[in-house]
């Protein structure tokens, strides 16, 4: 029996993971593995809440994300790695919580109206989409997680989870502990076009990319638009390449780039090449580990099969308490 505090977090399988996932989630998840009893979940049901009309990529995306989990150093010896839909207990708890949650609690979740507006091409007037933060609550509560590492945009979902746990416990007794949010840092991370790095903008640098591809993408990355000629001084403060230097380069390189930019002492090509020099070695171990796991598909399957088995065991033990607290009739009660 471990006395470590438990962590649960999840990620949607939406396609190739990129630098945003690495900084915003994976590096934090990886670093928590020694101190916490970590559960990391590929939330395929969550992907359905927005992409129910086209499920053609779901299997492939889930497989890719499984490889990404392992590539970034999530370690099956220390973490339980699994797929949400392999643990049907999440759905059972979601159903039971749906009896308890007042509709206005879901309607006021900020991501609800935001995403509805952003994803106009999809019909999100569904029950599943409104309820997805509650499904997330079930993901968390079913493992009685102490800590949930998420970006700031997800904090309201953890707050909802706490409120639901409180309401549940008021009705049925203390069964579901309230989790704490642990905000993961979300540094400004522009994509190659200068907008926020995002799959939907097609401006990402992927975790599986090799050196040639990384260097090529950086070469065409947007810079300070005022710096048209090599002899024009530039302003690093408004250059997206420099934002990446801030995240990936050493202080020394950053100072060299900022100074060289302002004085036109260096050109953008040099500046970007120095950024690549920092980025490539950071991604290389990830790419190499991914490639190694791609050659061992049976091992990947076994890892997630075993993770699913362990997750089901923990989830079922919570559900035994939940069903009893609600006084659902067991077979023995008939
Ligand atoms: N909703 C989260 C997102 O879109 C993913 C997620 C699902 C999650 N279940 C979770 C995150 C449980 C933390 C804990 O990013
Ligand atoms: Fe941006 Fe570097 Fe060019 Fe300056 S030198 S504009 S920081 S890419």
Written account of the structure:
With 334 residues, this protein is mainly alpha-helical. The chain has two domains: 6-189 and 297-333, 3-Layer(aba) Sandwich (Rossmann fold), CATH 3.40.50; 209-290, Tyrosyl-Transfer RNA Synthetase (Orthogonal Bundle). Helix content is 54%, strand content 7%. It has 14 helices and five strands. It has helices at 19-31, 44-51, 58-71, 89-100, 103-107, 110-118, 127-130, 132-141, 155-172, 211-219, 240-248, 251-262, 268-294, 297-326, and strands at residues 6-11, 37-42, 79-83, 147-150, 180-183. The strands form two sheets. A three-stranded parallel β-sheet has the order 1-2-3. The chain has a two-stranded parallel ribbon with strand order 4-5. The longest helix is centred in the C-terminal third of the chain and has 30 residues, at 297-326. The chain is elongated and about 85 Å long. The two termini are 35 Å apart. It binds tryptophan and iron/sulfur cluster. The site of tryptophan has 13 residues, from strand 1, helix 8 and strand 4.
Secondary structure: elements and pairs:
Blueprint: E1 6-11, H1 19-31, E2 37-42, H2 44-51, H3 58-71, E3 79-83, H4 89-100, H5 103-107, H6 110-118, H7 127-130, H8 132-141, E4 147-150, H9 155-172, E5 180-183, H10 211-219, H11 240-248, H12 251-262, H13 268-294, H14 297-326
Parallel strand pairs: 1-2, 2-3, 4-5
Helix pairs in contact: 3-13, 4-8, 4-14, 8-9, 10-13, 11-13, 12-13
